Amino acid sequence: MKARVHVMLKNGVLDPQGEAVRHALGSLGFDGVEGVRQGKVIELDLADGTSEDTVKDMCEKLLANTVIESYTIELN
Predict the structure, then answer these.
(1) Can you tell me the distance from the alpha carbon of 56 to that of 43, in angstroms, rounded to the nearest whole number?
(2) Which CATH class name applies to 2-75?
(3) For the chain, domain boundaries
């Protein structure tokens, strides 16, 4: 079984990496980009029967800093 966890900074939290990407895109001539938020995707190979609650615990304890980040989980 696979899980994909998408982690993004919460709205209102400054995203310096996203701002650097936005600036770089503008420098390359992509003028229509008004904002960029950068995040991360974590793919997990899990044993069959691993519950979504277990993946949520992983996120809460290690994979995401829940003070400033939000996350979503996809199970396949």
Answers:
(1) 13
(2) alpha beta
(3) 2-75
